[in-house]
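Sequence, please.
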């Protein structure tokens, strides 16, 4: 694969392995694997919520400089990313008035690039509306670093307190003519993050509608492998079977 060429090889069919398999659909039990994954995620979230509340209670008497120092030490020590963000997210929920200072700190030019992912993860996982509003502020401010805007849009897509308005905003950004390569990167990520948002909310028709209509619009203008890769990423994140018609045509190329 390159940006100008495709290379595809068809492997030999394993005929012997399939020869004895039944061709009757009634002999098989069909299940949506995404539904099972959603049930497992719900159990995980319940445990995470209890852990988060314990951490919030413990952080109520902790001052911001102390919490920030602990967070920085975890990052510098190379702790597992799943452990890095939890106390800082709890601190922000215990002290939402400190969110602006935290955002200013992690978006400052001197903040280490290697610490950005857990820093924005902590902000995204904080449940206070102040964290959501701060992420929206970073995302909408075009003078912010493009990578920080992209981190913000992903963090927003994974939050529970956003919905169709964010879907519309991501779609608008995806279709906005970019003025630079950096803006083009933000637009591509907006496509993928709309898919993340819609995939996480399979029952919310307004969000799904924004995502599926974007698939149709992008597919109608896609010309290069890079164009199509973004469409495929959106379809994959969305996990909407009705959109496979946009993908299946590319599985039958003979060259």
């Amino acid at each position: 694969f390159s940006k100008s060429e495709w290379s595809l090889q068809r492997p030999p069919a394993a005929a012997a392995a399939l020869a004895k398999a039944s061709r009757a659909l009634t002999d098989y039990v069909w299940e949506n694997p995404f539904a099972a994954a959603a049930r497992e995620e719900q159990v995980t979230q319940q445990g995470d919520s209890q852990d988060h509340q314990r951490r919030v209670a413990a952080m109520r008497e902790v001052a911001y400089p102390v919490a920030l120092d602990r967070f920085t030490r975890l990052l510098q020590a190379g702790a597992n990313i799943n452990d890095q963000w939890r106390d800082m997210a709890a601190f922000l929920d215990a002290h939402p008035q400190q969110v602006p200072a935290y955002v200013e700190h992690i978006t400052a030019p001197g903040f280490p690039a290697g610490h950005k992912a857990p820093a924005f993860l902590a902000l995204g996982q904080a449940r206070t509306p102040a964290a959501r509003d701060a992420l929206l502020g970073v995302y909408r401010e075009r003078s912010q670093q493009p990578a920080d805007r992209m981190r913000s849009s992903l963090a927003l897509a994974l939050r529970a307190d956003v919905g169709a308005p964010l879907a519309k905003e991501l779609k608008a950004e995806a279709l906005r003519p970019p003025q630079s390569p950096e803006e083009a990167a933000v637009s591509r990520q907006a496509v993928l993050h709309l898919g993340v948002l819609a995939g996480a909310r399979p029952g919310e028709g307004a969000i799904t509608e924004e995502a599926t209509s974007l698939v149709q619009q992008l597919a109608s203008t896609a010309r290069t492998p890079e164009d199509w890769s973004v469409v495929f990423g959106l379809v994959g994140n969305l996990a909407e079977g009705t959109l496979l018609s946009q993908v299946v045509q590319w599985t039958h190329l003979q060259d």
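The chain has 14 helices and no strands.
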